[in-house]
Amino acid sequence: MTADTPSETPVRFRDLGPLEIERGGEVSAVGGARLESALALLLIHGGHTVGVDALCEAMWGERGVDRSVSTLDSHVWRLRRVLEPGRARGAASKVLVRDPGGYRLVLAGDDATDSGRFVRLATAAADRLAAGDAAGALQQASRAAALWRGRPYGVAADEDWAHAAVARLDAVRAGLRETHIGALLGTGAPEQALGELETALAEEPLRERLWLLRMTAYRDAGRRAEALRAYTDARTVLVDELGVEPGPDLKALHAELLRDDASAPVAAPARAEPPQHLPAARNRLVGRERETAEIAGLVAPGRLVTLVGAAGCGKTRLALEVARETAPPGGSWFVDLTVATPERVPETVASALELPAPGPVEPADALRRFTSARRMLVVLDNCEHVLDAVAELVEEMLVEGSQLAVLATSREPLEVDGEEVVALAPLTSAAAVELFLDRLDALVPGGVRDDESMADVRDIAEAVDGLPLALELAAGRARAYTLTEIASQVRADASTLSRVGRGRGTNHHRTVRDAVGTSYRDLPEPLAALHRAVGAVPGPFTVDVAAALTGMTTTDAVDGTAALVHRSMLSALGPLRVGGVSRFAQLATVRGHAVHEADRAGEDPAARRDAWVEGLARAKPRLGAHTMASWYAALDDDLASIRATMQRTLVDAPTPLGATLAARLGLYWAFSGMALEGDRWRDAALRTLGAELVDPVDRVLLLLGNANSRLVQGDPAVGRVLVRDALAVAESLTGDDAVIVCDDLAVTTGPLRRVGDAEVLAEVAAATRRLAAGAPELDVVVRHTELVADAAADPRPELVARFAALHDDARAADNLYTAWSAAAGAATIALAADRPDQALPWARATLQASADAGLRDNAYALELYGLTLGRSGEDATALRVLGAAEAQHRAAGVPWPRNEEMSTLLATITTRLGATVADRARAEGARTSLAEFLA
């Protein structure tokens, strides 16, 4: 290959403004917002692997992780064509290479990106100015400034994942502007410098360095009065906006001007690096760019910033990173309070700050005197066990006018006036994987090389909830265990992770369980009991569950849950829906500690959990009642408790309770997008429990639930057998049991109608009438089964009126299930008579009744509505609705399209709209809820 072959020409990325690619002097666009976003993420991590999930999220947002690998690969192929247009077919890419778990952008040197060259030139300019070479600094600064075309990374500039990188470049640009102004002053051009300062201060009026340069420029231009006025303006802005006095440099220049003693022009004297009394960083900080930038922006003289979070979430490491990046002139200091007692907190801080023995002066007084006039930052680490003492000391140190900044880490806030609290969450899934791989490579270089290993890494990251300490300890096991074994270990109990070998951390970081234990030991017994009890829920839970697990009153549970959130022992997740109740959860590591402590105390909170779940399941309202919506919502809110109880009672130690739950929750699974999960639970109940252990009514419901699934999944022969088995068991039922079974028989008529089984439908209708025994409250249900059976036998047009009457009567009887089914019957018969105009309002009524009943999913109602819209000529809307129906059918294991009519309709509409528009409409519909279609 010759040197002038296009694929060999170096690629340069113009990333300071709209993203562009420069090759051989020719500039070209990337081509599309998604490719720009992907390239921006790769540039930000230039030379490092970017995970598949992170790339998908960058291109498609939060739902991007649902995209298939093949979809991502197709976009990578397009990006490679832009980056290497001359690459031969089949040749490996030299610019965008595939690594295990993701992709890596190969950059040809520091000048391969405008941002890299910009930083290099800006740094060189600052260095030359500090060395007294103002002319050289001006030349370098001008070259750097010419590269800036707008906000870095184009369309991605405002994305969360780009925030830290953009902020860093903005900070370099701000520094470059000051260097450029300083160089103008150093080369004798104060008037030109004043012109640039006018714009700079309008954009950043709180930047003291700009005010200092303005005063210097006025002084150098012989405009002493204006220099003094600039100081007054600066002080007004800083006091009004930040509540702080000007710094020592501004004050010193002001004093010189007042003495009329201003020295010869000094552009930018070299400054010594601020002293940093901080522990050494042994490894790089991963996944905290946004938090670092946020906290760095909060740290300021006279201010307390407290970083709170659960044990092991990386508070100390992040605080140290911030301290290094924001070190003020007086330096950054680190104080470890791990072993301090309340009465020795002032002495511990004074010792860390290397203060001499104060003699008769109290340590707190000595600290106040030492810190108040110094622009310094003090990190107070691990404050949770000495909160009151730390809070009292901070209040004494941060007196009015103090130049001290305090950054504290704790598991709960200090609650000092003016405190800025930043809650630190565990790492995102992509960052957690990156951290684990980083630490793993340090121990076992190249240890992850295939998709199977990456799957284990993702499992590990998920099992420890992205907790940095747990990820580091898990990586430490890689010399002894395979990744698959480590994944199994952390799934079993992440709290057992401990440091391998001697380690270099403090004792409270040697094991995850001990890290949690330091918080647990400080809890009063009611809170400790609540902590132990909620360990029985492996996921989100509500206060109702917390109260049931402990025997507390609801009021006490509300207060206790809030107290554990305050101490970072629980995470507050908020409601699932607008107007819903708040949910809470323990991190996996915290939950492991809770389970361990409950076992030590001889407690069995799981038994109380199971009893609560049973009560919720048995409180199921009558079929289609308007209260079903709130019941479904309650199940959603505490789904983790339900699943834990079903696992225990159907898999770990099967009991009749498991069968009852699998039977009574059938409709919930079916209409909440979890039909396949419902199948698994019912199969487990029928497989593991003999008929003699299962209540007859539960057995009927289990058989009918499985029959419905087999019918809709394309196995009508098995479905027919199961329905008849259920009818045989139901023959002996009476009273409330008969009522429950009648309701579920009405549900079964739908799948039977869709497969056209008129014979079994007639049997179901007869059985429903027999079980109802004339009970008035079952009249609508009996009419439902009989009318569906009649329609299957002879779908004559006059049945529309009967279905319409049944719909109205069902609504009056508070049976929204029969209401939507009757509306569907009316729409179906109208369509069969080629009357889409008559069918459309009834098809929409199916959606309305479904939503009123609290159903999140109803693939058949959506399918009918979409079919009716398509027959009415509303092509685009029809495809959106059918896209939702397809997504819900596939999630339930139902073939799609289900019949020839649907296949023909989809093909016809796609031809009319065009494949691109049609695909977009179906994809949009797949992300749209039933309620949104109504809106």
UniProtKB/TrEMBL annotation:
Where is the DNA-binding region?
Answer: 3-107
Give one GO term, molecular function aspect.
DNA binding
Q: Which SMART domains match?
A: AAA, BTAD, Trans_reg_C
Q: Which residues form a coiled coil?
A: none
Q: Which UniProt keywords apply?
A: DNA-binding
Question: In the UniProt record, does the keyword DNA-binding occur?
Answer: yes
For this UniProt entry, which residues form the secretion signal? none
OmpR/PhoB-type domain residues are 3-107
**Can you supply a Gene Ontology BP term from the record?**
phosphorelay signal transduction system
CDD domains this protein is in? BTAD
Pfam families from the UniProt entry: BTAD, Trans_reg_C
Transmembrane segments annotated in the record for this chain: none
Give the record's family classification.
Answer: Belongs to the AfsR/DnrI/RedD regulatory family.
PANTHER family recorded: HTH-TYPE TRANSCRIPTIONAL REGULATOR RV0890C-RELATED, REGULATOR-RELATED
Indicate what this protein is called per its UniProt record.
Transcriptional regulator, winged helix family
